[in-house]
Amino acid sequence: MLYAERTRLTILRERPSPAVDPHALALSALGWVLADDDRAARLLALTGLTPDALRVGLGDPAVLSAVLEFLCGHEADLIAAAHELGVEPQTLAAARRALA
Question: What are the percentages of helix, strand and coil residues in the chain, rounded to 5?
């Protein structure tokens, strides 16, 4: 007599990506921007932020939104930052909207 073991079939699906925290993503993006002196200088020039205002505003959604707006305004930087941070460019844009 043969005994059949109960088997369970599993359908493999991609797991949904976890929700991205806009604050954390913006801080990571800021780190990426500041890693390059020319890009950091351009951020300060275009946003009107000073290094001190940037330091004080690390928890301010408006400052973090300005950092992401800076990236969204220059497609090459947006794509490079997204690649480095392991997200899609539209994720950075969505984080900017969430912080605004």
Answer: 65, 0, 35
Q: Which residue is it, tokens 């912080």?
A: 99
Domain residue spans in the chain? Answer: 37-99
Contact by Cβ (8 Å): 56, 64: no
Tokens of 93: 């844009």
Taking the mean position of all CA atoms in its chain, how far away is CA 65? Answer: 11
Give the pLDDT of residue 31. 96
Whether the full predicted model's pTM is greater than 0.90, yes or no, is: no
Query: What digits encode the pLDDT tens for the residues 80-100?
Result: 999 999 999 999 999 999 998
Secondary structure (3-state) at 69: helix
What span, in angstroms and rounded, lies between the C-alpha atoms of 43 and 77? 11
Rounded-to-integer distance, Cα 85 and Cα 100, Å: 21
Per residue in 2-31, pLDDT (tens digit) is 555 555 655 555 554 557 899 999 999 999
